[in-house]
Amino acid sequence: MAASDGTAAPAAVPAPAARSGRGGDRGRERPGGTGRTSLSRQARRRRLVAAAFLLPSLVLLGALVVHPIGYSVWRSLFDRSGEVFVGGGNYAELLRDDAVRTAVENTAVWVVFAPAVATALGLVFAVLTERVRWGTAFKLLVFMPMAISMLAAGIIFRLVYDHDPDRGVANAVWVGVHDTFAPASAFPRARPGRDSPLVPEEGAAAGGFATREPVRAGTPVLLPLVGVAPDALPEGTRPARTAPAEPGKVTGTAWQDFTRGGGGRPNAVDASESGFAGMRVEAVRDGRVVDSATTRADGTFTLSGKADGALLRLPASNFREAYAGVEWLGPALVTPAVIGAYVWMWAGFAMVLIAAGLAAVPRELLEAARVDGASEWQVFRRITVPLLAPVLAVVLVTLVINVMKIFDLVFVIAPGSVQDDANVLALQLYRTSFGTSADAGLGSAIAVLLLVLVVPVMLYNIRRMRREARR
């Protein structure tokens, strides 16, 4: 470009290039280095804050979980006094102890049946209550036992399983159903008195009584019995009377040969004595029943001429003991009975969780299956259950862990005489560790055994939750 005076202007001097070398490098790195330092300080600060918040939890975890587990393992290596090191001696003792073996077997029964039954009932309740008008009220009733403590539930079911039908609800129902089809006799303790014409039968007819000699038509027969309390006689019983003779027929009287206050004549009908109403009388000839009759309210009966020359028999059905029901808390049924109480409590828990999972199931899938012609059972089995599989796994694993440490229900419901038969690991742990013959070393070994059995279930649950989290 030309200047105003005609001379050429000098070219513009370019800006100096950025300096190279160490000085320039430091100038460029300083801002970046400051940023990295700031980021590292922030990261350390966040770690410290996280540690400050986690520290109380870690302290509690160590004090309430880690330390007891470690101490139990250490204590299991010593004898009863805690002074003599026995190594694995306590664990070897567990293998030889019959009580521990029974506890392990019963715990296995609990793990197999209790969670499965409770989960199955919860699934059924959750599915069916969706179709019931008062489903919410039903769910409330089923879940209500969860509000009761194990101790209170144990006391309740101790009364429910009482052997006396007048006290135990289970036996009251069972006896009522049994007596509907096989009523009990009103004369369970009746028996012949001294010098009675009746003698006990033997063989297949044992339990009944028969006359010593054959009877004859036209001659009244006397069948005196004793052993029945006056208050236990059937309703409508009337004073006994001697049956009148009838030509060509066998008549007789079965009665209570006992006069209250004394003074009666043996083997003779007195005015103050009561007849046996409703007692079955059979005429037996050559081992066959040729005729039979039932006594009237005054104890009299009449048989046809077929009974002439036969023996009269009072069959054992007249003296059958009243059905006492099932011994729910006996050695054979105590474990299933206690499991029943547990299912009563925890089926509501399973139902609530499964119902929550069922609410998230897409209804379009169910309706599409029904439109395609699937039955309700097919919809339930092939769509509902597979979609609820994660929820069912949660419920099942939770209940398995819960039953592994069941203690209070067994301790309260099972009577002392059958606690050995109902024994479980948690109860055996208590019985071994406390009491007059306490052995803390052996009890600690049982605690470690229980921990070892629970750990696989817990690890499975953790792996399952991680798989769910990845989805």
TrEMBL record:
Gene3D superfamilies, per the entry: MetI-like
Region annotation (Disordered) ranges: 1-41, 238-272
Membrane topology of this protein: Multi-pass membrane protein
Any Pfam family: BPD_transp_1
Keywords: Cell membrane, Membrane, Transmembrane, Transmembrane helix, Transport
InterPro entries tied to this protein: MetI-like (IPR000515), MetI-like_sf (IPR035906), UgpAE/MalFG_permease (IPR050809)
Keyword Transmembrane applies: yes
Regions of compositional bias (Low complexity) in chain numbering: 1-20
Predominant location category: membrane
Subcellular location field: Cell membrane
Recorded GO CC terms: plasma membrane
Transmembrane segments: 48-70, 108-128, 140-161, 341-362, 383-404, 440-462
UniProt record, GO biological process: transmembrane transport
Domain ABC transmembrane type-1: 104-461
Biased composition range(s): Basic and acidic residues: 22-31
Top-level taxon: Bacteria
Record bears the keyword Transmembrane: yes
Family statement: Belongs to the binding-protein-dependent transport system permease family.
Official protein name in the record: Sugar ABC transporter permease
Organism per entry: Streptomyces globosus
